[in-house]
Structure formats: C-alpha cells, structure tokens
Amino acid sequence: xxxxxxxxxxxxxxxxxxxxxxxxxxxxxxxxxxxxxxxxxxxxxxxxxxxxxxxxxxxxxxxxxxxxxxxxxxxxxxxxxxxxxxxxxxxxxxxxxxxxxxxxxxxxxxxxxxxxxxxxxxxxxxxxxxxxxxxxxxxxxxxxxxxxxxxxxxxxxxxxxxxxxxxxxxxxxxxxxxxxxxxxxxxxxxxxxxxxxxxxxxxxxxxxxxxxxxxxxxxxxxxxxxxxxxxxxxxxxxxxxxxxxxxxxxxxxxxxxxxxxxxxxxxxxxxxxxxxxxxx
Length: 280
Prior knowledge:
Blueprint: E1 4-7, H1 27-37, E2 41-45, H2 60-69, E3 72-77, H3 80-83, H4 91-110, E4 115-120, H5 129-140, H6 143-148, E5 152-157, H7 161-171, E6 176-181, H8 182-188, H9 192-199, E7 203-208, E8 210-211, E9 217-218, H10 227-236, E10 242-245, H11 259-277
Parallel strand pairs: 1-2, 1-10, 2-3, 3-4, 4-5, 5-6, 6-7, 7-10
Antiparallel strand pairs: 8-9
Helix pairs in contact: 1-2, 7-9, 9-10
C-alpha cells in the first residue's frame, strides 16, 4: 500500500491565515497527531520561517519524535527556494542559496530523508527559457553532492508535461526526479492521464489536493479533480511511492472545523481511493 503522509502544518492552526507555513510553535505535537490519525509520513516544510529544526546542527529532537511516534519524514518541501531562488539572482545571493540547499541535503541524509523537493511554480516558475537554463546550470553544480548524500532532488513545475520531461532528460541523472501535484495540474488545464504516462519513470512523490480550473485549492472532492481517473492512472503506471495530502484548510473558512478533523476526513478520502484502485 502506498504510504500516505500529511504536509507539515496542516495539523496545526493556520498562521496569519496562510494555507501553508512552518508551524513554529506546534511542529512537535504534529508527530503525535499524525500517528493518532493513522498517517504513515509527514512531509516537512522549509520556508522563510526562523527556528526550523531541519536546518539546525542538532537534529536529535526530530529523530526522537519521528521514532517515538512511528512517523517517518520522507520528504522536505523547500518552499524557501520560491523566494530565495536558484536562478535570476545575483552571484552573491546564488552562492548563499546554494549553501542552504547543500545544508538541507546534508541534514536530509543525517535524518534518512530521501526526498528534497524544489518548487518551480508561481514566483519561482521557469517557463522563461533564460531562467530554465540558469536553473539547470546552477542545480547541476549540486547534483554530485546530492548523489553522495543519497538524496533525490524532486522538481515540481508548472511546465506542460512534454516540457517537464525535456527538463528531466536534460539533467539525465538518477537523483533528479519529479514531484507531481494533481491539484496544480488540473488548475493549469493539463490532462493527468497524459502527464502521468509521460512522467511516470521520474515521479518520486505526489501531492494530493483538489483545485478548480484556473483557480484556488478547495477541499478534497469539491474541485475539478476527477479522483477516480487520477487513481486509475496511478494504477496503470504502477505507482508505489508516497502520497502526501496537501488539501485546503477548512479552518480558514469555518473556525468550527479543526485542522485535525479536516486531516482525518482527507485521510479517509485518500485511503478509499487507494483501496479502490491501488490495492490488488
């Protein structure tokens, strides 16, 4: 059965009404909550927030909480690089940002975290050909370090599937893989069956969320994602890696619904489709 995880922060109250941010005051409690609800994994968040233990020298508390609660951190979503980009910045900024990337790779290795995700969407999109070439050149300088540390760098992009495939082929390295986000793809008007077929050999991690076409993230099952079609397509490509729930926060619209209630509902939603399509 595909391991199912929750994005860090979804089990905590929203910070400044943001849908996704590092839960500075409550990240420790999320391990216990994730275990209580029946999740297998947590996908960590590294953004611009301070005091994030994933970047510190002392990783013992993270290791202990993960082991005690039987909740593995399998991946890190480095939203940090949506602002501190790996292209279209000064040489000084680039050097600083690459140092952070290397520190994250090293700490992922120490924590046995397999996946470090680099988002290339919205403010960090590489639809621009110049930006794409810069990004490829700059990331290539770090790939040997990622390989030595046994960490996969998974790219999440807003590129059409053929262009995304060409980007991955340009790297042509086993440590450069893809993170697939079904909600974002539907919002962009892409066909998940075509995408998954084209990108299947590179997909290392999947974000499960629902969105409206050319619009926002909405609660699972209320948007334009055809989840039967999506999970059927996953079955066809024999996808066996992780599924990370990154659904809309219902507490932003209705304070009577707790983050825990939403995540519990979403977990059942995903498990039902996994049982229907991915378990033989």
